[in-house]
TrEMBL record:
Residues 71-161 form the Ras-associating domain. Keywords: Cytoplasm, Cytoskeleton, Metal-binding, Microtubule, Phosphoprotein, Zinc, Zinc-finger. It is found in: Cytoplasm, Cytoskeleton. Gene3D superfamilies: 1.20.5.110, Phosphatidylinositol 3-kinase Catalytic Subunit, Chain A, domain 1. It comes from Cariama cristata (Red-legged seriema). One of its GO terms (cellular component) is microtubule. SMART domains: RA. PROSITE patterns: RA, SARAH. This is Ras association domain-containing protein 3. Residues 163-210 form the SARAH domain.
Length: 214
């Protein structure tokens, strides 16, 4: 179970320190996703973000083969569990910009304000998660932690239920969500009806055997 951890203070690195860390980082990379330091001191690299979305997202294309409900040119569907996306970003890119880039890559029409980026760390057999502020820089966090994802990984989630900005949802989005929920509710109801119908048949069969004249 994830444990909330307080946000760690940002430590500013000199250009020489950044250079040394990038060299150390690149020497440890095993997936060829290395960082590059530019002459102006800005560096670029890759981060992987795991998508852990519980609610359906709205996309602008109708090519998805997932469970969906249509509204004009938009489709609402559930993103598959464990979906990981790789982004090439710079050290100047903020958390908010990373979220926007992820949504753009998936053609997601939802308001970026509905989502939050978390960092996940493994320490002493526990998993710590911390929601990142919009102004933090994910590539800096990746550089400081090193390339091993078990030391640090990024996760995109919706805001917690109490934090949801419902005013950010459009009417078509809300209607799509209701249709999906109605469909799932009906599917679960049919499963329950079949289960109890089978149970009733077996019970009646057993009772018939008990009261059958010898």
């Amino acid at each position: 179970k994830d444990v909330e951890k307080e946000r760690e203070p940002h430590v500013y690195l000199s250009k020489e320190e950044v250079k040394e860390k990038i060299q150390s980082y690149n020497s440890s990379v095993t997936d060829k996703l290395k960082m590059t330091l530019n002459a102006n001191g800005i560096y670029t690299g890759f981060i992987k973000v795991q998508m852990e979305l519980c609610r359906p997202i709205t996309v602008q294309s109708s090519q998805s083969q997932e469970r969906c409900a249509h509204s004009n040119n938009e489709t609402a569907f559930y993103l598959p569990d464990g979906c990981v996306n790789t982004l090439h970003i710079s050290s100047t890119n903020t958390v908010r910009e990373v979220i926007e880039a992820l949504l753009k890559k998936f053609f997601v029409a939802d308001n970026p304000a509905k989502f939050a980026l978390y960092k996940r760390c493994h320490k002493e057999d526990q998993v710590y998660t911390c929601k990142l502020s919009d102004r933090e820089h994910p590539l800096y966090l990746r550089l400081v932690a090193g390339p091993r994802t078990e030391m640090l990984s990024f996760v995109l989630r919706e805001h917690e239920t109490g934090e949801v900005m419902w005013e950010a949802f459009s009417i078509p989005e809300l209607q799509n969500f209701l249709r999906i929920l109605d469909k799932e509710e009906n599917e679960q109801l049919q499963i329950l009806k079949k289960r109890y119908a089978a149970y009733r048949d077996k019970l009646e069969e057993a009772l018939g055997g008990v009261w059958k004249p010898g």
